[in-house]
Amino acid sequence: MLASAKLAGFIVTNDYDAARAFYVDRLGFVFVSLDQYALVVQAGENHIRIGRIGDFTPRQGTVLGWEVADIRAVAKWLVERGVELEKFPFAQDKEFGIWTTPDGSQVAWFKDPDGNILSIGQHA
Question: Which of 59, 77, 94, 122 is deepest in the core (most CB within 10 A)?
Answer without folding.
Answer: 122
